[in-house]
Design goal:
This protein has 317 residues and is an alpha/beta fold. It has 8 helices and 7 strands; from the N terminus they run ααβαβαββαβαββαα. Strand 1, helix 3 and strand 2 form a beta-alpha-beta unit. Helix 2 packs across helix 3.
Length: 317
C-alpha cells in the first residue's frame, strides 16, 4: 500500500508514502502550523510579485501551496506523483489536485508554474523530459531544486544551479538574475521564456556578475578589517592583562562594598519603619485619651461650678 512504502535506493522506483513524509522532510510534512504558515508566506509573495491568474504547482505534495493561492483568489491547481500525498489534500482543494508525473506532458497552460524541491527527485535520464514538460506549460517558471543534501535517499539527481539553468536555456528560458526568491530557498529562481539577442542575455548576466563580485569584495574587505581590529584588541588585552585584572579586582571590591552598604541601609530602613509604627501607635493612643478627656470636660466643669456655689452659700449662712 502507498501509505506504508519507504524511499528506496537511487536507480529503483521511488515511492513516497507516509514514512517518507513523516521522516524525510525534516519537520514531519503534514497539516501542521509550520508548513501551513510556510506556504502561506510563499503564496503571499507569489501574489504580490507575480500577480498570476493561474498557477500549477508541479509536485504539490499535500496541496498546501494550492490551498494558499486559492484562498488569495488565484486559479491554482497541483499535481504530484505520490498517491499518498494527494490522498491527504484538504477537501477544499481536493478537486484541484491530482496524481501525475513531471515526466509526462502537463495538463493545460498556466500563467505561472511552481516547482519547489522536486527536480532533484527526478532520475537523471528523465530530467530533460521533466524540464521540457515544465517549459511547455507556462512562460514563467518558479523553480527551487536543492544543490546539495546528497544524503537524502530520494535525491536522485542533485545538481548545481548552472546545470538546471543550462537545461532551461535550451528550452528558451533564462533566469531572472535580479529576482530575489530567498523567501522560498536560497537557491530558488525564476526562469522566463525570452526571445532576445544573445548580446542582451550576456549583458544581463554580466551586470549581475559584476554587482555580486563587487559586493563579495566589499564584504571580504570588511571582514578582513574586522579581523585585524580583533587581533589588535586581543594583543592589547594580553599586554594590559595585569592592569585589567587589578581594575577588575577594584571594581569587584567596590561592588561588594556597595552591596554591604545597601544591606545596612535596608536594615536601617526596616528599623526606621518599625519605630515609625511605634510612634504612630503612641500618637493614636494619646489622641484617644485626649478625645476621652475632651468629651468629659463639660461635665467636670458643671460639677466644679456646683461645688463653688455650695461653698458660697455655706459662707453666707
Amino acid at each position: 500500500m502507498a501509505d506504508q512504502t519507504t524511499p528506496v535506493e537511487a536507480g529503483a522506483q521511488v515511492e513516497y508514502g507516509s514514512f517518507y513524509y513523516r521522516h524525510d522532510c525534516g519537520i514531519p510534512y503534514e497539516r501542521n502550523e509550520y508548513w501551513l504558515e510556510f506556504f502561506d508566506r510563499i503564496a503571499d509573495a507569489i501574489v504580490r510579485e507575480f500577480h498570476p491568474s493561474s498557477v500549477l504547482d508541479a509536485g504539490c505534495a499535500m496541496g498546501f501551496l494550492v490551498e494558499g493561492l486559492r484562498k488569495r483568489g488565484v486559479d491554482a491547481s497541483g499535481i504530484d506523483v505520490s498517491e499518498y500525498a494527494i490522498s491527504q489534500v484538504h477537501e477544499s482543494v481536493a478537486e484541484h489536485c491530482s496524481v501525475a508525473s513531471l515526466t509526462e506532458p502537463l495538463p493545460g497552460r498556466y500563467d505561472l508554474v511552481t516547482c519547489v524541491e522536486v527536480l532533484e527527485h527526478i532520475p537523471p535520464d528523465q530530467a530533460d523530459a521533466a524540464v521540457a514538460n515544465l517549459c511547455a506549460a507556462a512562460d514563467r517558471l518558479l523553480i527551487s531544486t536543492s544543490p546539495g543534501d546528497y544524503s537524502e535517499a530520494t535525491h536522485l539527481n542533485v545538481q548545481p544551479p548552472e546545470f538546471w539553468s543550462a537545461l532551461f536555456a535550451r528550452e528558451g528560458f533564462f533566469r531572472e538574475v535580479e529576482r530575489d526568491l530567498s523567501y522560498i530557498t536560497p537557491w530558488a529562481a525564476l526562469y522566463v521564456r525570452r526571445s532576445e539577442p544573445l548580446t542582451e542575455t550576456v549583458r544581463r548576466y554580466d551586470r549581475s556578475w559584476w554587482r555580486l563580485r563587487n559586493e563579495a569584495q566589499e564584504v571580504r574587505e570588511a571582514l578582513l578589517k574586522a579581523q585585524g581590529k580583533l587581533a589588535e584588541l586581543e594583543a592589547g588585552e594580553a599586554e594590559n592583562r595585569p592592569e585589567l585584572q587589578r581594575e577588575l579586582d577594584r571594581r569587584q571590591e567596590e561592588i561588594l562594598r556597595l552591596r554591604d552598604l545597601l544591606i545596612g541601609r535596608d536594615a536601617e530602613l526596616g528599623a526606621a519603619r518599625g519605630r515609625l509604627s511605634e510612634l504612630e501607635d503612641q500618637t493614636q493612643r494619646v489622641a484617644n485619651v485626649a478625645n476621652r478627656v475632651q468629651s468629659r470636660v463639660p461635665r467636670v466643669m458643671r460639677l466644679f461650678g456646683a461645688f463653688l456655689r455650695r461653698l458660697r452659700s455655706l459662707a453666707r449662712g
